[in-house]
Each structure stands twice: as structure tokens, then as C-alpha cells.
Amino acid sequence: MSSDAGQVRSRLGARLRTQLRDRGVGGIAAALGATRDVCAVWFPESLRSEPEFLAYSITKTFMAASALILQQESRLSLDDSLARWFPEIDRSARITVRLLLNHTAGLPDYGGLRAYHEAVRRWPGKPWSFDEFADHTWRRGLLFEPGTGWSYSNPGYMLVKSILERVADESYSDLVRNRICGVLELERTYVPESIGDLARLAPATSTLLSPTGEPRDVRFLYHPGWVSHGVVASTASEIAIFLHALLTGQLVGEQAVRELTVLVPVPNAPRRWRRPSYGLGVMADPDSPFGPVIGHNGEGPGYNTSVFHAQRFRAGGATLCAMCGVEDTSLAESLVFDSFALL
Fold it and tell me: Residue 98 is part of which domain span?
């Protein structure tokens, strides 16, 4: 390790410990990964190797990257109409893959539905089927005319997953393994498809998996199918490597990165964000203190994650990822943005 990398690792480690101490967080695994000389720190330090976590909605960035890769292979176009695959969906002829990826298609979400959260509490190991997700969301109507508004939609990405699998003629798990992990040599990044696939993750408990709100171990109860579009599991360092390679054109090329980062405004974002925006599977703030920042957050039962690339730092910018085995919707993002100030 170079002296510069060692200094970065030391500063990141101090930041991680301070944040966890200040928030009174203990007995959990948390990690920070950076692509500045590719260093990683984690807590508790007694862990023998970097822990793995569910990335939750960072998965959307993997899906957008997959769509761009398949577009380069001439298997689909981001401007293809949803009617090509799902003609039964209302106004599907006016919805494109691109609109699904940037959340402007008008499809509703299930995140705020009481029925969804009650089902997860009562039957954490038995996720809704594709049709059940559809019945609770877009089959009840669109929120607005496609392309005229913005509303976060997990079911929109469930449709993207189905489209990707059809055009690639392979499962989304295989698509990630073959088109992304194999290319970038990511050995600990995968798409879990059963409860058993979670056994290798960092321990995490959730109060969202029990009707009485008792903390339960996510790894032995929660079926990843409750994330309708699928969910990536990985380490902080490998997620950072992925996003850095994606945004610097190493994975999909510069033209695809330009498509990825065409931004639309996002309403009602947290105060940290000066000009909240969304591209294709990426959150962005063009006016952040660190220059344009692009990445994604993720949260769900047991885990809270965040990864962002800041262009201000030297040639190629810098990428940081934080992954935490705790249900705190702001911890990972705070770790990332506070740590940018240390670089």
C-alpha cells in the first residue's frame, strides 16, 4: 500500500469510527470503500475480511448499466416502447425503457403501501409474485402522463428486469455475473435469489420482519424477492469499483455514460442536496460542494447503503461507498459525503 493510500485508509477509518460512536451504533458491521488506490475499512475491526451487505436500490445502477450494455450489443434500445413486451399496461406505447430507468414513466410504487409492509411483516419468506406487485401498483392506474413528471418506482424497475432477462435470454443474476462482475473481476458481488443466499452477509436485524416489531435476523428470514426488481449483494469496495468503472467509461464507454447522466429534476429531496436530480439508475447533484456527484442510496430490512462518485478529485474523480448493517436511512449517505471532505 502506498503512503497516500495508507493515509486515506487511516482517515476513512477514523471517520467510520467517529460516525458510529456519535450515533450510538454498536455491534454491527459497517464498511467504507474508496477507489482512491482501492482501500477499504470496516468495523468491527476484528472481522477477518470485508463484510458483505445487501445493496438494495444501488441495484438500480447495476440495472441501468446492464441496459446500456445490452443496447451496445444491439439487443435493445433505451427508446424501445414498453408495448413491445407489455402491451397490456396502460399507455405502454408512450413508455420507453429510458422513462422506466429515470422514473418518469408514471408508474406507482409500493414503498408507501400499508399492504406491502404488512405482508413483509407476516410472511417475510414468501414475497409477492410479479402479478401481485402489478395488482398493487400499475394495474390501479398511472400517476401521470408518461414523461411529464417524476415519481420513484420500484415496479418500473421490475419491468426493466423482465425486459433485460428476455432480451439477454438469461437470468438477471447471470447477466450481472457475466456482463459486469466478470469484466471488472468482482468476486464478491452477486444477486441473491433465496433466503439461503443471504447466509454469507454481515449480521443485521430488522424490526420490519415481525408482526410485533421484534428484531429478527434478516439473513434467515427475509426473501430477497421482496425487492421486486432483485437485489445485488456485495462489499463496499467492490460497489465503489463498479460505480467508478461505470462513470469513467471503463464499463460502457463515454457515449453510454453521457446517456446515463442526462438528468431530470427530483422534487422533495433532503436538505443536503442542492439540486437533486436523477439520471438512468443514478441519483445526482450537479451543484454539490464536491462538484457533480453521481451514485445511489439503498435501504431496506437490516441494511443501509450509499455510493457516490465526485468529479472534483484529481483526474477521474473519486468514488466512495458505505454499507451498514443497521436500519438508519441517513447513516451510509452521511459516511460517504462526510468522507469526501477527507480526500
Answer: 3-340
